[in-house]
Structures are given as C-alpha cells and as structure tokens.
Amino acid sequence: MKRILKVSILCSFVLFVASRAFADSVMLKNGKVVQGEIVEQTPYHVLIKVGMDYQKYYLAQVQRIEKDEEFETKINYSRFPNLDPKFVRDIVLYLEINGTRKGISDQLEELVERVPPSAQQRIKDVFRIDEIIENLIPIYAKYYTHDEIQQLIEFHQTPLGKKFSTITQNLAEDVLKVTMHYFKTRMAAQ
What we know:
Elements: H1 2-21, E1 24-28, E2 33-41, E3 45-50, E4 53-58, E5 62-67, H2 69-72, H3 85-97, H4 100-114, H5 117-126, H6 129-143, H7 146-156, H8 159-189
Antiparallel strand pairs: 1-2, 1-5, 2-3, 3-4
Helix pairs in contact: 3-6, 3-7, 4-5
C-alpha cells in the first residue's frame, strides 16, 4: 500500500514538473513555435529552456510570447497515463489557439444567460471548461500525432491560420444555409 502511494505521488510530481517545464510558448515571425520555459527576458532577447537546451531569440525575431500557466495548471495530466505530457500540453495549447476553448466558454456563458438566475450557479458548477477540454484530449490524440498537433499550432500562428480560426464558424453556418436551401429547392421541385 505504501509503495502504491509513493508511486502515485512520484507520478503526480513528474507530471506536474513536465507540465510546468513546458508552460511557455515563443511564437516567431517565421511561424515557428518554440515551447519551453522562459528563463530570461530582456528588452532585447528571450532565453527559453527547451528540454536540456537553451535557445536565445532576439525580440526582432519574435511575434508573440505566451505564458500559458492559467489554463495549463487546471488540466489533470494523471488522466492520460498513456500519453506523453508534452503531447497533452500541446493539444491543450492547440485548443486554446484555435478558439475551441473560447467557443466552449462563450456557449456556456450563453447557456447561463438563458436559464433563470436561480439556476445559473448550478450550471456554472456542473459544466467546467477544463473538464470538457480534458474529455477532448483523447479524441485529438486519436486522430492526430504529436507532430501534426505541433504543425497545427504553427499554422494557427500564421495570418491565414488566424483568419481560419476567426471565420470557420461563420463559414460553416453559411455552408449549412446554402445546403439546406439547395435541399429545400430540390425537394420542392420533385
């Protein structure tokens, strides 16, 4: 029993350290995303630890720096013992960058606004965004490799990727309207 407890504590610690070591992202102007731990940031450069290596980038090369600690700390990595914690973290980052997290948050806010005030707190307590995100992680891991998720992250940092994230929902709604109109027209002609 003590051995199981020690192993559980050790695994939790390793997962926590792994998740914290990869909490920061440096998005470069060439589209590359460097993930690691920012150990130094000056008005001229940023030094990021990636694994055992240190990489220095001048701010003229950097498009954006993100410290992802807020959403990162709420993900329960122990739910995914068969996945590399870096892969899990990148999936979470991708869901943040591509707007999935914001979309879920917006939908929950709309839901809360539609229910009576007496039920609003219950809705907030029942539906937790981080738990929803945790349920999406195995789905993304099933269909994408770690390398593909990293490529998607890089894509969503480009101007086209940002546009894609912004217009996808509206585009899907317009496609649905046109398709429904087509079917109605065809059915009426029969």
